Amino acid sequence: MKNVWGPDGGRVIGRLAAGAVTYGFTGTPRSRSAPQESATSDNAPVIPHHRHGSALAHETAGSDGGPGTPRRSARRSSHTPRDGRYGDRHGRPGTIPPVPGRRSAVRALGALGAVFCAGLALFALLTWQVSAGGPLVDRDWSVLGWFRRAAAAHPWLNGPAQALSDVGNVQVAVPLLLAAVVYAGARGRAGGRPLWWLPPLAAVAAMAAVPLVVGTVKSAVARPAPGKVHLGPDGYAGFFPSGHTATSAVAVGAAALLVLPLVRRPAVRRSLAAAAVLLAAAVGAALVWHGYHWPLDVLASWCLAASLLATVAAAGVVAGTAAGPRAPAAAGGSSAGGSAVGGESEVDSAV
């Protein structure tokens, strides 16, 4: 008669004795060949479970019939998902069920790093083309001519285009960003989130980098205004890249990256993100519409803004990873890149 041994080495029940258990019916022994039915009585045998929580084997693990660890994977490699599994830190890979953790954060940071490098590479390429008078400059004339013909055919759009161009002014873009920085920082600090200050600081640093990079490149390239051969007598440094485009794109984009993680409803988040992208694109198009900048001036500023905004998004991913997993009720408030400030509630009751 073979025995089944418990996790502490004691014998639980003999195989032959198990066949004589009544299962709650007096005088009616259950044979081994009878069909198995669900036991409903308190005297039904209980299969012992090992402390690791893995499946038990039908035979003991010891080679001599003695007590052992009754696991299916004791003497052979596991081929079923019933083998013992051990969790990692809460909120990290290895827990059961799997949850997003460091691996997803690393993938997000890698994607943002690729955006940062691609933006800088395109910005450098366009700068070289404008400085050397490359083939892209000829295409610049063609696109500018199309905008001029469209502006002449639709003069009623000049007013809205001028209003959009003014969004790139420092007096408009900077206060918009500062409002988002103050709000996101206050929400993050009130929530006690670690590294709550990192995304707002990254947004301020990105905006501060705009005049430094744009001013340096403008002085180095010294590109004339559209339709002019030489710079005007006002001593303006140049028109490549567009400072208004870069300022508006960084301000609107950084403000969106700070506020979007605080919004719980996915539809509202998508709408705000689309509005931010469309506004930045409309400002650049309006500058070309009025003849304030060449198309390549605007395109280069968009590339620069993409690189700067990638750093702001990366700061949000780092802050969200440091904050750890969020409660299930607040899980819907996180964005694709992670929580920038770790807000758990809605921006307001209407959102």
TrEMBL record:
Residues 80-91 have a biased composition (Basic and acidic residues). The keyword Transmembrane helix applies. The chain crosses the membrane at residues 108-128, 167-186, 195-217, 237-260, 272-292, 298-319. It comes from the Bacteria. Residues 28-43 have a biased composition (Polar residues). InterPro entries: PAP2/HPO, PAP2/HPO_sf. Keywords: Membrane, Transmembrane, Transmembrane helix. Residues 198-313 form the Phosphatidic acid phosphatase type 2/haloperoxidase domain. Residues 27-101, 328-351 are annotated as: Disordered. The keyword Membrane applies. PANTHER family: AT30094P (PTHR14969:SF13), SPHINGOSINE-1-PHOSPHATE PHOSPHOHYDROLASE (PTHR14969). This is PAP2 superfamily protein. It comes from Actinacidiphila bryophytorum. The lineage of its organism: Bacteria, Bacillati, Actinomycetota, Actinomycetes, Kitasatosporales.
